[in-house]
Design goal:
By secondary structure, this protein is of the alpha/beta class. It contains 7 helices and 9 strands; from the N terminus they run E-E-E-H-E-H-E-H-E-H-H-E-H-E-H-E. A hairpin with a 7-residue loop joins strand 1 and strand 2. The longest helix has 15 residues. Iron/sulfur cluster binds next to loops.
Length: 250
Protein backbone atom coordinates (compact mmCIF):
# COMPACT_ATOMS: atom_id res chain seq x y z
CA UNK A 1 0.00 0.00 0.00
CA UNK A 2 1.28 3.50 -0.92
CA UNK A 3 1.86 6.06 1.81
CA UNK A 4 1.19 9.74 1.34
CA UNK A 5 3.26 12.51 2.89
CA UNK A 6 0.67 14.63 4.68
CA UNK A 7 1.30 18.15 5.98
CA UNK A 8 -1.99 18.47 7.85
CA UNK A 9 -5.65 17.45 7.91
CA UNK A 10 -8.39 19.97 8.70
CA UNK A 11 -11.56 18.05 9.65
CA UNK A 12 -13.96 20.86 8.71
CA UNK A 13 -13.38 23.51 6.07
CA UNK A 14 -15.84 25.78 4.30
CA UNK A 15 -13.25 27.37 1.99
CA UNK A 16 -11.90 24.30 0.17
CA UNK A 17 -14.77 23.58 -2.19
CA UNK A 18 -18.55 23.35 -1.82
CA UNK A 19 -20.15 22.61 1.56
CA UNK A 20 -18.40 21.46 4.69
CA UNK A 21 -15.36 19.37 3.74
CA UNK A 22 -12.38 17.62 5.26
CA UNK A 23 -9.23 19.13 3.73
CA UNK A 24 -6.13 16.94 3.40
CA UNK A 25 -2.96 18.92 2.67
CA UNK A 26 -0.13 16.91 1.14
CA UNK A 27 3.52 17.86 1.50
CA UNK A 28 5.66 18.83 -1.50
CA UNK A 29 5.21 21.22 -4.42
CA UNK A 30 6.91 21.53 -7.81
CA UNK A 31 6.23 25.30 -7.93
CA UNK A 32 7.96 27.89 -5.80
CA UNK A 33 5.52 30.79 -5.97
CA UNK A 34 6.95 34.07 -4.76
CA UNK A 35 3.75 34.72 -2.81
CA UNK A 36 3.22 31.20 -1.42
CA UNK A 37 1.30 31.42 1.86
CA UNK A 38 2.33 27.91 2.89
CA UNK A 39 6.04 27.81 2.00
CA UNK A 40 6.59 25.05 4.58
CA UNK A 41 4.58 22.70 2.32
CA UNK A 42 6.93 23.10 -0.68
CA UNK A 43 9.94 20.99 0.16
CA UNK A 44 9.90 17.29 0.88
CA UNK A 45 12.30 14.44 1.25
CA UNK A 46 11.83 10.73 1.77
CA UNK A 47 14.76 10.12 4.08
CA UNK A 48 13.01 10.03 7.45
CA UNK A 49 10.29 7.58 6.62
CA UNK A 50 7.95 8.03 9.56
CA UNK A 51 8.13 11.70 10.30
CA UNK A 52 10.14 14.61 9.02
CA UNK A 53 12.43 15.96 11.73
CA UNK A 54 12.89 19.53 12.94
CA UNK A 55 16.56 19.59 11.94
CA UNK A 56 15.79 18.37 8.40
CA UNK A 57 18.53 19.68 6.07
CA UNK A 58 15.99 19.74 3.22
CA UNK A 59 13.90 22.36 5.05
CA UNK A 60 10.79 20.22 4.80
CA UNK A 61 8.00 20.87 7.31
CA UNK A 62 8.71 19.14 10.63
CA UNK A 63 4.96 18.46 10.88
CA UNK A 64 4.75 16.28 7.74
CA UNK A 65 3.76 12.70 8.40
CA UNK A 66 3.62 9.61 6.18
CA UNK A 67 0.10 8.14 6.38
CA UNK A 68 -1.45 5.19 4.59
CA UNK A 69 -4.94 5.20 3.14
CA UNK A 70 -6.43 3.34 6.13
CA UNK A 71 -5.15 5.98 8.53
CA UNK A 72 -6.76 8.79 6.52
CA UNK A 73 -9.99 6.81 6.10
CA UNK A 74 -10.08 6.45 9.90
CA UNK A 75 -9.92 10.25 10.21
CA UNK A 76 -12.68 10.64 7.60
CA UNK A 77 -14.93 8.15 9.42
CA UNK A 78 -14.73 10.24 12.62
CA UNK A 79 -16.45 13.20 10.90
CA UNK A 80 -18.30 11.51 8.03
CA UNK A 81 -21.77 12.52 9.25
CA UNK A 82 -20.81 16.21 9.25
CA UNK A 83 -19.08 16.56 5.86
CA UNK A 84 -20.15 16.34 2.24
CA UNK A 85 -16.75 15.20 1.05
CA UNK A 86 -13.00 15.63 1.10
CA UNK A 87 -10.68 18.03 -0.71
CA UNK A 88 -7.06 17.12 -1.31
CA UNK A 89 -4.70 20.08 -1.48
CA UNK A 90 -1.08 20.93 -0.76
CA UNK A 91 1.63 21.70 -1.65
CA UNK A 92 0.76 20.05 -4.92
CA UNK A 93 -1.32 16.97 -4.21
CA UNK A 94 -1.16 15.59 -7.77
CA UNK A 95 2.54 14.82 -7.26
CA UNK A 96 1.25 11.91 -5.14
CA UNK A 97 -1.25 10.69 -7.73
CA UNK A 98 -0.79 6.95 -7.05
CA UNK A 99 -1.55 7.47 -3.37
CA UNK A 100 -4.55 9.66 -4.22
CA UNK A 101 -5.96 7.00 -6.52
CA UNK A 102 -5.99 4.45 -3.69
CA UNK A 103 -7.47 7.01 -1.29
CA UNK A 104 -10.20 8.03 -3.76
CA UNK A 105 -11.38 4.42 -4.21
CA UNK A 106 -12.06 4.23 -0.46
CA UNK A 107 -13.68 7.68 -0.27
CA UNK A 108 -16.00 6.82 -3.17
CA UNK A 109 -17.05 3.66 -1.30
CA UNK A 110 -18.07 5.96 1.57
CA UNK A 111 -20.28 7.94 -0.84
CA UNK A 112 -18.47 11.21 -0.17
CA UNK A 113 -17.52 13.69 -2.89
CA UNK A 114 -13.89 14.25 -3.87
CA UNK A 115 -12.41 17.60 -4.91
CA UNK A 116 -8.82 18.21 -5.98
CA UNK A 117 -7.14 21.58 -5.35
CA UNK A 118 -4.19 21.82 -7.74
CA UNK A 119 -1.62 24.12 -9.36
CA UNK A 120 -2.49 22.37 -12.62
CA UNK A 121 1.00 21.21 -13.55
CA UNK A 122 0.44 17.44 -13.46
CA UNK A 123 -1.56 16.14 -16.46
CA UNK A 124 -5.00 14.87 -15.47
CA UNK A 125 -5.31 13.34 -18.92
CA UNK A 126 -2.44 10.99 -18.05
CA UNK A 127 -4.14 10.01 -14.76
CA UNK A 128 -7.44 8.78 -16.14
CA UNK A 129 -8.38 6.47 -13.23
CA UNK A 130 -7.81 9.22 -10.67
CA UNK A 131 -9.68 11.75 -12.82
CA UNK A 132 -12.64 9.39 -13.18
CA UNK A 133 -12.81 8.90 -9.39
CA UNK A 134 -12.68 12.59 -8.43
CA UNK A 135 -15.75 14.80 -8.69
CA UNK A 136 -14.18 18.09 -9.65
CA UNK A 137 -10.94 20.09 -9.60
CA UNK A 138 -10.10 23.62 -8.53
CA UNK A 139 -7.14 24.88 -10.55
CA UNK A 140 -4.82 27.86 -10.04
CA UNK A 141 -4.34 30.06 -13.09
CA UNK A 142 -1.70 32.28 -11.62
CA UNK A 143 -0.63 34.17 -14.76
CA UNK A 144 -1.75 33.89 -18.37
CA UNK A 145 1.53 34.41 -20.22
CA UNK A 146 4.26 31.77 -19.76
CA UNK A 147 6.99 34.35 -19.05
CA UNK A 148 5.12 35.86 -16.11
CA UNK A 149 4.11 32.40 -14.87
CA UNK A 150 7.75 31.26 -14.91
CA UNK A 151 8.86 34.43 -13.09
CA UNK A 152 6.22 33.86 -10.41
CA UNK A 153 6.33 30.08 -9.95
CA UNK A 154 9.53 28.80 -11.60
CA UNK A 155 7.51 26.71 -14.11
CA UNK A 156 5.68 27.46 -17.35
CA UNK A 157 1.90 27.13 -17.62
CA UNK A 158 1.59 24.84 -20.66
CA UNK A 159 0.15 21.95 -18.66
CA UNK A 160 -2.00 24.30 -16.58
CA UNK A 161 -3.76 25.54 -19.71
CA UNK A 162 -4.07 22.02 -21.14
CA UNK A 163 -5.51 20.74 -17.85
CA UNK A 164 -8.04 23.56 -17.72
CA UNK A 165 -9.25 22.80 -21.24
CA UNK A 166 -9.26 19.05 -20.61
CA UNK A 167 -11.12 19.24 -17.29
CA UNK A 168 -13.69 21.67 -18.72
CA UNK A 169 -14.27 19.32 -21.66
CA UNK A 170 -15.23 16.48 -19.30
CA UNK A 171 -17.19 18.77 -16.94
CA UNK A 172 -14.76 18.32 -14.04
CA UNK A 173 -13.60 21.90 -13.63
CA UNK A 174 -15.26 23.52 -10.62
CA UNK A 175 -13.16 26.66 -10.20
CA UNK A 176 -10.18 28.68 -11.47
CA UNK A 177 -8.32 30.93 -9.05
CA UNK A 178 -6.07 33.94 -9.59
CA UNK A 179 -4.21 35.76 -6.81
CA UNK A 180 -4.18 39.52 -7.38
CA UNK A 181 -0.81 41.05 -6.49
CA UNK A 182 -0.59 44.83 -7.01
CA UNK A 183 2.55 46.20 -8.72
CA UNK A 184 4.06 42.72 -9.18
CA UNK A 185 1.74 40.94 -11.65
CA UNK A 186 -0.08 42.20 -14.74
CA UNK A 187 -3.38 41.70 -12.91
CA UNK A 188 -5.73 43.46 -15.34
CA UNK A 189 -4.28 41.61 -18.33
CA UNK A 190 -4.43 38.26 -16.50
CA UNK A 191 -8.02 38.62 -15.33
CA UNK A 192 -9.13 39.82 -18.76
CA UNK A 193 -7.50 36.84 -20.53
CA UNK A 194 -8.51 34.22 -17.94
CA UNK A 195 -12.13 35.37 -17.70
CA UNK A 196 -12.39 35.26 -21.51
CA UNK A 197 -11.06 31.70 -21.39
CA UNK A 198 -13.63 30.69 -18.74
CA UNK A 199 -16.49 32.27 -20.69
CA UNK A 200 -15.42 30.38 -23.81
CA UNK A 201 -15.15 27.04 -21.97
CA UNK A 202 -18.23 27.30 -19.75
CA UNK A 203 -19.39 30.57 -18.10
CA UNK A 204 -20.68 28.55 -15.11
CA UNK A 205 -17.13 27.66 -14.04
CA UNK A 206 -16.45 29.66 -10.91
CA UNK A 207 -13.76 32.35 -11.09
CA UNK A 208 -12.23 33.12 -7.70
CA UNK A 209 -10.21 36.32 -7.43
CA UNK A 210 -8.02 36.13 -4.35
CA UNK A 211 -6.59 39.23 -2.69
CA UNK A 212 -2.88 38.90 -2.00
CA UNK A 213 -2.28 39.18 1.74
CA UNK A 214 1.23 39.58 3.15
CA UNK A 215 0.80 36.98 5.90
CA UNK A 216 2.92 33.84 6.18
CA UNK A 217 4.76 34.73 2.96
CA UNK A 218 8.51 34.93 2.40
CA UNK A 219 8.97 38.70 2.39
CA UNK A 220 12.54 38.32 1.15
CA UNK A 221 11.14 37.03 -2.19
CA UNK A 222 8.38 39.55 -2.84
CA UNK A 223 6.90 42.66 -1.26
CA UNK A 224 3.44 43.84 -2.22
CA UNK A 225 0.25 45.06 -0.61
CA UNK A 226 -3.36 44.01 -0.26
CA UNK A 227 -5.25 45.12 -3.41
CA UNK A 228 -7.84 47.85 -2.83
CA UNK A 229 -11.58 47.14 -2.87
CA UNK A 230 -11.82 49.41 -5.89
CA UNK A 231 -9.27 47.36 -7.82
CA UNK A 232 -11.13 44.15 -6.99
CA UNK A 233 -14.42 45.72 -8.14
CA UNK A 234 -12.83 46.67 -11.46
CA UNK A 235 -11.50 43.14 -11.93
CA UNK A 236 -14.91 41.65 -11.16
CA UNK A 237 -16.47 43.99 -13.70
CA UNK A 238 -13.94 42.95 -16.36
CA UNK A 239 -14.75 39.28 -15.70
CA UNK A 240 -18.48 39.96 -15.84
CA UNK A 241 -18.16 41.96 -19.07
CA UNK A 242 -16.23 39.06 -20.58
CA UNK A 243 -19.08 36.65 -19.82
CA UNK A 244 -18.25 35.01 -16.46
CA UNK A 245 -21.35 34.60 -14.33
CA UNK A 246 -19.93 32.99 -11.21
CA UNK A 247 -17.29 35.31 -9.74
CA UNK A 248 -16.10 35.24 -6.13
CA UNK A 249 -13.71 37.58 -4.33
CA UNK A 250 -11.88 36.46 -1.21
S1 LIG B 1 1.56 26.05 -6.06
FE1 LIG B 1 0.66 26.59 -4.09
S2 LIG B 1 1.80 25.40 -2.53
FE2 LIG B 1 2.98 25.36 -4.45
S3 LIG B 1 4.44 27.06 -4.20
FE3 LIG B 1 2.65 27.85 -5.33
S4 LIG B 1 1.29 28.72 -3.77
FE4 LIG B 1 2.79 27.40 -2.71
Amino acid sequence: MNKGLVNKIIPFSSVDGPGNRMAVFLQGCNFNCLYCHNPETIKRCDHCFDRCIKSCPNLSSPKALFMDVDEIVKEVKRVKSFISGITVSGGECMLQAEFLKELFVEIKNMELSIFVDTNGSVPFWENSELTALMDKAMVDMKAFLPEEHIGLTGMDNKNVLKNIEYLASIDKLYELRTVIVPDILDNYFNVDAISKLIAALNPDIRYKLIKYRPFGVRKELMISQIPSDNMMKELVQISRDNGCINIVVT
